[in-house]
Amino acid sequence: MYELVNALSENVIHGSDSNLSGTTIATVVITGMVVVFIGLILLVLLVMLYGKIFDAVNRKKEEKKNAEAVKVETKPAENVPVVPPAIEEGIEEEVVAVIAAAVEAMSAQSGKKLKLKSVKTVKPQRNPWAAAGIAENTRPF
Predict the structure, then answer these.
(1) Are residues 106 and 61 in the same domain?
(2) pLDDT of residue 37
(3) pTM more than 0.70
(4) Do 64 and 8 lie in a common domain?
(5) Residue of 121, 119, 79 whose CA lies nearest to 102
(6) Beta bridge partners of 86
């Protein structure tokens, strides 16, 4: 094994450098490790700097958006008469109340003013199994 290392080192190390001492080798190894770790530390600092820059940019955009939202003046609610939704015969009041609550929840979530105008039963359609069969057999390739 020692002979193999010597043979390989003769190809790499020039004749004048073949008498390297242990301190020279240790100095080269330590210098190499220090250079690598300094490079890694600089990369970490660069990534941290990019993060702070992008946080500042995003914060400015958010503040700008919040400032625009504050500028928007809310108009006072007009006294519009509330018209109850048209309900078809056979639909229970509880079902209408649940539907109205769902519409109001969607209205609050989206920020738009939604209104329930009518509640009707759905006209009978094709059997769900038949609809699935048609969808399966007419699906494009």
Answers:
(1) no
(2) 97
(3) no
(4) yes
(5) 119
(6) 118
Tokens of 114: 């939604």
Condensed to tens digits (0 to 9), the pLDDT of residues 51-84 reads 999 999 999 998 888 887 776 655 555 666 767 7
- Output the six-digit token pair for 76: 């006072």
54: Cα within 13 Å, side-chain hemisphere: 6
> Of the residues 71, 98, 113, which one is the last residue of a structural domain?
71
- Percentage of the residues of the chain whose pLDDT score is greater than 70: 79
93 and 52, same structural domain?
no
123 class by beta-carbon count within 10 Å (0-12 exposed, 13-18 middle, 19+ buried) = exposed
Whether 40 and 33 have beta carbons less than 8 Å apart is answered as: no
For residue 38, pLDDT over 90 is answered with yes
Is residue 7 within 8 Å of residue 18, measured between CB atoms? no
Domain of residue 30: give its range: 2-71
Judgement on whether residues 56 and 22 belong to the same structural domain of the protein: yes
